[in-house]
Amino acid sequence: MNHFLDIHKTDPADLRKIIDQASATKQARQGRPRAALDDELPLKDRMVALIFEKPSTRTRVSFDVGVRQMGGQTMVLSGKDMQLGHGETIADTARVLSRYVDMIMIRTFDETVLTEMAEYADVPVINGLTDRTHPCQIMADILTYEEHRGPIKGKKVVWCGDGNNVCASFLHAAGQFGFDLTFTGPAQLDPEEEFIGLARKAGSKVVIERDAAKAVEGADLVVADTWVSMHDSQSSKERRHNMLRPYQVNDALMAHAKPDALFMHCLPAHREEEVTSAVMDGPQSVIFDEAENRLHAQKAIMRWCLEG
Ligand code: CP
Ligand code: NVA
């Protein structure tokens, strides 16, 4: 069995296998009703626990639908309704859940909750977002890019705004899939040094450029995310907005990218804040393909987890 904890912790050959699998099962399902079963049912007679300690629309629904399409069953659990939210240790929770379910997906705050869950569970554990990373999202994004534009290897991706959890997983993917990443945002919100170092060590060109227009020059893909993440305090909202306003993705900024550049956002988006509606709803935007591809990418991730 395999855990899917982070992109930099997963072998590049396995990452490629997951993307190829996702693409193949997506193709095979074209035109079928949402609830129709897949041709192959790798989750037949399997039970998957989906634990949420933070809100979610896409992750919750795409995992739930994905498990069912592969013949399995789910239970969606809110962390605060479990003993986990009332002092039971992560290790004990992991050991108990391993007696009932065949796989655990967890969205949490501190990443040590995820890593401890994986350490003590006898079943695969999948990272559905922590304060630090969001690997399932970026697997969907790689699938989306390649569907529209072919191999992402060697391309220039520009991250605009907060060097947050989603940005971190993009940096991990840069190293593993071989693309370059330019970060443009205020110095206070730079991505973690450790993650920049990992991408560079893997051979990716990682550039920090404070001028958004210069950063986006020649971009193949421009990416934005919310300016206030779920783990950020609401009291930091005004300060963050003031720092991040120069990094809004709008038509003027997109004009600096390559004419065929794509725009991505993991959603949920705050229209007219980190990105304008003109860009979100414009011809370069692939945001709803990204959302759809969460389903296909995660199905391939779950399959890989069980294959071991
Ligand atoms: N992009 C993403 O993970 O969305 P949710 O928070 O709705 O799951
Ligand atoms: N950076 C955002 C992503 C939401 C899917 C957050 O953590 O809130």
Task: Characterise the protein shown here.
This protein is α/β, with parallel strands linked by helices and 308 residues long. The protein has helices at 12-28, 58-69, 90-97, 111-120, 135-149, 165-177, 193-201, 212-216, 237-244, 251-254, 277-280, 287-307, and strands at 47-52, 73-78, 103-107, 125-127, 156-160, 180-184, 206-208, 221-224, 262-265. Bound molecules: phosphoric acid mono(formamide)ester and norvaline. Residues 164-166, 225-226, 229-230, 266 line the site of norvaline.
In short:
The protein is 41% helix and 13% strand.
Report mean pLDDT, rounded to a whole number. 98
* Overall morphology: globular
Largest sheet: spatial strand order: 7-6-5-8-9
End-to-end C-alpha gap = 4 Å
Low-confidence stretches: none
Secondary-structure topology with pairs:
Blueprint: H1 12-28, E1 47-52, H2 58-69, E2 73-78, H3 90-97, E3 103-107, H4 111-120, E4 125-127, H5 135-149, E5 156-160, H6 165-177, E6 180-184, H7 193-201, E7 206-208, H8 212-216, E8 221-224, H9 237-244, H10 251-254, E9 262-265, H11 277-280, H12 287-307
Helix pairs in contact: 1-5, 1-12, 2-12, 3-4, 5-6, 5-12, 6-7
The structure holds phosphoric acid mono(formamide)ester and norvaline.
